[in-house]
Amino acid sequence: MAATVKIAIGSIIVGLIVLALKALAWQLTGSIALLSDALESTVNVATAVAALIAIRIAAKPADRDHPYGHHKAEFFSAVLEGVMIIVAAMLILREAWHGFQNPRMLDAPLSGLLINTVASAINALWCWVLISRGRRLKSPALVADGHHLLSDVISSVGVVAGVALAVVTGWAILDPALAALVALNILWSGWKVMASSLSGLLDEAVSEDMLTDIRTTISDAATGAIEAHDLRTRHAGPRTFIDFHLVVDGHTTVDAAHAICDRIEQALMQKLPGALITIHVEPEHKAKHSGVVVI
């Protein structure tokens, strides 16, 4: 079983445990703010399931209908997660509005807050696992899930502190006010998740730092060529796509040009394992005197 699949299954298990704890905290206190926290955890579980499905689809090898693979499935999962986060925020805002209209003091606040704190601590630990391992495995679905959990942890800390303040001061209106703040934080989180995922769906180029590394690698490995131009890059989950035109002397044999291409591909693969590289060889009169100059 792939590491990404194992982590995605772990997210579902952790999500169910945290959801149960937060639901219990809400039942004990009747707090709208804690209810908002529990509602966000239901989204965590749903998006963890979506991430698992997307990761399994993305892991499928290329086929006749999908010659470039299924890597973008993870971006669809992240977009779906953003949509569900926004829906959860709308539900929380509705509950907060009802709370503003009928504010009331909370029951059994200490036990509920302790249980919610334990749930948040579990989320914080798993959030670190998702983001660190997701980046290492180049999985947009896992990283998006981790960032969503991070916003959940931050809002949970604020909820616990705010509910405690409401109990100490006797200001019942603080409870729905906190729920509304949680909803706004979730909305912002959902937008960021969707924006980062859409960049992948729209074939966004690699980062400037990575592009510089690619240019340097081509220049160092292309001994025997003249230049490389029209360099294009894009990424889809763990896969990076690179294509460019390589200009060689017009008298270079096919075997010699092929050997240069092989050398460049091997160097790029060492930098970016799993990269899909396409090189179009051209004679010297096609040179544009721009792009990557071969050292």
UniProtKB/TrEMBL annotation:
Where's the Cation efflux protein cytoplasmic domain?
207-284
Q: Where in the cell is it found?
A: Membrane
**Gene3D superfamilies under this entry?**
Cation efflux protein transmembrane domain, Cation efflux protein, cytoplasmic domain
Q: Which residues form the signal peptide?
A: none
UniProt cross-references to SUPFAM superfamilies, sorted A to Z: Cation efflux protein cytoplasmic domain-like, Cation efflux protein transmembrane domain-like
Q: Where are the transmembrane segments?
A: 7-26, 32-55, 75-93, 113-132, 153-174
- What region holds the Cation efflux protein transmembrane domain? 11-202
What kind of membrane protein is this, topologically?
Multi-pass membrane protein
Question: Hey, which family's this protein in?
Answer: Belongs to the cation diffusion facilitator (CDF) transporter (TC 2.A.4) family.
NCBIfam families of this UniProt entry? CDF (TIGR01297)
What is the protein named? Cation transporter
Source organism? Paracoccus methylovorus
